[in-house]
Amino acid sequence: MRGYNKTGFIITTLLLLSLSSILFSQAGRGNGRIAGTVKDKDGNPIAGVKITLELLSGVSSGARKMLGDTLQTSFEQEGKITKKVEGGFILECLSDSKGKWGILGFATGEFRFSVEKEGYSAIVQTHNLTQMRRNPLMQIVLERPGKEPPEIKENLSGKRFQTGNSLYKMGKYEEALPYFREYVDKHPDKFKMAVNLGNCYINLKKYPEAIKTFEKVIEGFKNENPDLKGNAQAAIIYANIGEAYSGMNNQNEAAVNYKKSMETAPPTDAAVAYNAAEILFSGGKTDEAIQYYKLAAKLKPEMPVYYSKLGYAYLNKGDIKAAVSYFEKFAALAPDDPQTPAINDLIKDLKQ
């Protein structure tokens, strides 16, 4: 057994518990604890099972961050924490060689409870846990996957997909990724669900993977109906592909896909039209850029930047009258914008 200073360990633990109690008190919380065992159906303990608690409700996001930071050290002392997740409040531990596990440091609230180990069917449940009294000992039984009815497999897979969604909404893209990837691999017919996977890749700046994923979604749409005209969902996917290419600094392919998006279905989001216009303008396609700047302005006429961009686009074409008109619209909508004095000076020069 590894040696350590027992007195120092006890003092450190007491200090950590005191600090965590202060923080819980500030947030109106206390020290919650839950423990249990993990065994197979024959009663044999299973080591290395990951048990995850994800807070669904019960404490503010600010308090979650403080608690997560403070309790991290005490968990490391016990050798139970497997990772720290920035933001939100997620605690994890691994079962030991006797199948025993324990988690401490959570507040009263509703938690998503996940139990996972490769080679076993995962468990995802929701539990209300308390800090005020001892939570019941949890005796978990994991089974090897067998030939389950399709509806049971779908139910479990769907729960794991929802776990991915929860992680995604918290900005945990790296952790959400395997949940989405698993679902997409198991359900290739449900191609639309791959959009979540593609969005994960974009947020992680894994652009080639995002493009490949989104192209499979487009392929799925085409298998349903080769004519994508009017398909608003397909239009969004083309725009996503355009965004991925733009992230790779491949503006030519970005422009191609943004244009496909517009041709498939006129966007209802001004930002999509604006992004397309910016890429087209930077690529020297001024006339096409003007078309999409105007569309952005039509969708969101209160946005001054669309008019200044139109002014510069028309100035680039040499159409002074149109440029002045759009610059004036910008100045009227944004009199306090830092760019307005320079725009007003430009208007005066153009009118001379």
Descriptive notes:
It contains 13 helices and seven strands. 57% of the residues lie in helices and 14% in strands. The strands form two sheets. A four-stranded antiparallel β-sheet has the order 3-2-5-6, covered by helices on one side. It is of the alpha+beta class. Mean pLDDT is 76; it is low at 1-30, 58-88 and 147-156. A hairpin with a 6-residue loop joins β5 and β6. The chain is elongated. α5 (194-203) packs antiparallel against α6 and α10 (286-299) runs antiparallel to α11 (304-317). It has helices spanning 6-27, 61-78, 150-169, 173-186, 194-203, 207-224, 232-247, 251-264, 270-282, 286-299, 304-317, 320-333, 340-351, and strands at residues 32-40, 50-57, 90-94, 100-106, 109-116, 123-129, 138-142. The chain has a domain at 1-146: Immunoglobulin-like, CATH 2.60.40.10.
